[in-house]
Amino acid sequence: MVAKISLGKSIYGALSYNAEKINKEKGRVLDTNKIYNDGSGNINIHRAFEDFKRWMPQSTKAKKTMMHISLNPHPDDRLSEMQYTQLAHEYMEEMGFAEMPYVIVKHEDIDRHHIHIVALRVRPDGSCISDRNNFYRSKEVTRELERKYGLHTAERQKITPDMPIRKIDPSCDIKRQVANTVKMVGMRYKFQTIGEYNAILSLYNIRCEQTDGRVNGREYHGLVYFATDDKGNTIASPFKASRLGKFASRTAIDGRFERAKDKIDIRPTKAAVAEVMAVSSGKDDFIANLKGRNIDLILRYTDAGRIYGASFIDHNTMTVLNGSRLGKEFSANALEQWFTNGDKPEIAPVQPENQQPDNTQSDNTQFQPSGESQQTSDSDTDNPQTPPQGQRQTQSGHGQGNSQSHGFDDTPTLPGLDLFQTGPSFDADEEAFYRAMQRRKKKKRRGPKL
Questions:
Q1: Nearest one of 386, 275, 396, 383 to 326, comparing CA atoms
Q2: What distance in Å separates the CA atoms of residue 386 and residue 45, rounded to the nearest whole number?
Q3: Which helix (H) or strand (E) segment is 336 a member of?
Q4: Residue 330 and residue 277: Cα distance in Å, rounded?
């Protein structure tokens, strides 16, 4: 039996989550401790919340006053509601919560039935039940319960480098599948923009959206994940990154963008795509031949059916690259012209992998000068959820936060993150002077030593 323990501040939020399952007839209340229960299997959120508040102290030093536990027996263990209830009470007693108020709810939204327990963790006197060594203590309790009742031993699924990544199966635990897929994709693939990240996620029926706003005067920047069907339609409630794990957070993904800059070499992928393009007769032939080279092409369309984004996923080098990153002949505009009008792009020669680039010349095999490829770069947008209006080649709103002009002549830019920007030359004397001034400022702020 696997136990997942989450600490939080909102009893009402945890009750609402479980009530949602009950309202959809995918859950029912099995029992409660010191909380009103009418025996119907339903829950009155407001009544339950008021009962919890009666046990809440007037003041406490604990910041996280509640605990939300998920108990998951092995899929081969088919238990009755009475057995689930007994397991939950014994688990709470062994964990030191016998005298605390809590609610036990059975979830039936997936084939593997399981129970959730919402409990208060602060006593009426304001003291808090310690969460020290919760993981090890919980594991000992679950193992003892497995031995006592003859249950199968269940362990959390471990992510290994050779584990295959599969599409979301709606009949199984969607949240767990989304979390595992996001974790494995982040461990294996390299990408530099949210558009490239979404391209690889889309292969497994997952979509990611950025969320930005203000709450109580404070800015927040996060990510929300959606499980979809093969047509891209959402099939479940969205999951905030915080519910999946730190690896799925905005900070973690932005960090992967930055680390990928120095790790990605576009030349192997560009050479392979160029070879396939040279021998392909059209869209279907091009996509099929790419698959034969273990490369997926993800195309994004406007409502009018025009291609506005193209991403190449190279499973050989484990990289995701927008078409314009490879060159203007692989951009969305170029592919649209080829697939619609039959105008196959002219393929520029690809620099061999073992040949060092000539720093005295512009490297046109990787990036085109901004004056020549402005339309191409803009067409490969990084946000598949905001297609351009009508037949405009420039993504509407693309310039917000992503400047294409940096004040340098013919400076190549990358859509989305503007990576590898050319900047002023490095001056050692100026740098040393700047650092010395910074040290003086710090000393002034600190004041004299006593």
A1: 275
A2: 38
A3: helix 332-341
A4: 9
Output the DSSP codes for 277-333: HHH--SHHHHHHHHHHTTEEEEEEE-TTS-EEEEEEEETTTTEEEEHHHH-GGGSHH
Burial 218-246 (b: 16+ CB within 10 A, else e): eeeebbebbbbeeeeeeeeeebebeebee
pLDDT band at 163 (very low <50, low <70, confident <90, very high): confident
- Angstrom distance (rounded) from CA 199 to CA 292: 19
Q: β-strands 319-322, 102-107: how paired?
A: unpaired
Spatial CB neighbours of 228, under 8 Å, sequence gap ≥ 6: 168, 202, 205, 206, 207, 234, 235
Residues 3/72, Cβ–Cβ less than 8 Å = yes
How many angstroms separate the CA atoms of 381 and 195, rounded?
A: 7
Helix (H, G, I), strand (E, B) or coil at 74: coil
Q: Average per-residue pLDDT in the chain?
A: 81
Structure tokens at 192: 């530099």
Contact 290, 296 (CB under 8 A): yes
Write down the pLDDT at residue 263.
92
Distance CA 175, CA 198 (A): 17
Tell me, rounded to whole angstroms, the distance of Cα 42 from its chain centroid.
33
**What's the pTM?**
0.56
Residue type, 411: T
* pLDDT score at 443: 59
Sign for the pseudo-dihedral over CA of 100, 106, 109, 113: positive
With a CB cutoff of 8 Å and minimum separation 6, the contacts of 161 are 187, 188
The 3-state DSSP class for residue 44 equals: coil
- State how far the Cα of 187 lies from the Cα of 206, in Å rounded to an integer: 16
Interval 1-45: pLDDT, tens: 889 898 988 999 999 989 988 988 889 999 999 999 999 999 999
Interatomic CA distance for residues 299 and 335, integer angstroms = 10
Q: Is 426 helix (H, G, I), strand (E, B) or coil?
A: coil
CA dist., res. 368 & res. 285, Å (int): 27
What is d(CA 237, CA 222) in angstroms, rounded to the nearest whole number?
16
348-355, long-range: CB within 8 Å, 24+ apart, which pairs? 350/267, 350/270, 350/271, 350/274, 351/267, 352/267, 353/265, 353/267, 353/268, 353/271
Q: Are 411 and 429 in contact (CB under 8 A)?
A: no
Please give the pLDDT value at position 353. Answer: 56
